[in-house]
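Good morning C.,

I know you're traveling, so I'll keep this short. The sequence:
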Amino acid sequence: MMVGKFSYGRLSLILCLGLLGACQTAIKSEPEPLADGWLNSPSVFATQRDRLTQLQGWKLTAKVGIKTVSDNESANLIWTVRGTENEIRLYGPLGVGAVRLSFNGDRAVLKDNKGVEHVGVSPQELLMRVVGWPMPIDSLAYWVFGVPNESQSYQYQVFDGRVSLLDQGGWLINYETYKPLFLDDITLPKKITAKRTLLINGEESLVRVRLVAKSWTRTR
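The tokens, ready to paste straight into the viewer:
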């Protein structure tokens, strides 16, 4: 699933070929308390990673919204992974119309609503440049499964036996609801809100990314 140093080319391999366990370092049996109730033990995420090693491909259907100091937009999202290929489709009440973002280890391509293709190395950079959405796709690929991107440091808090807050890469991620969305033995986050202050067009803005998962399915 999702562990180890992140690169866009390895995203689906990490998610779908079960490299989780191989990339884990020393696991401590109990979380170590930090200041103000924060924890940082990777053992909390071990079971979820082990279960997700079964996945060889997946499709997430969700509602996603982006709120900044000047914009408040939402769209429907379909994220499909097959092998090393990722495709994110955004459509609905999106300010620039429907777009399709495809990426693998070599490049990223965003096709806008007029059929024009915009090419880049980073899907995250393309989405910001063309759509104006500061969505952290690299780490979101981990967060939607309820685990952190282990290429970055993190800390978390637990409520009622589940991770409720994750602090990583300058983002504060709030896990509001969990639900067995697909596969009987895997419970995944249903509602996620990630917040961070970013500099957008020369102006400091609090950015809020909210994702509500509707369904997960396997792909081949």
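Safe travels,
E.
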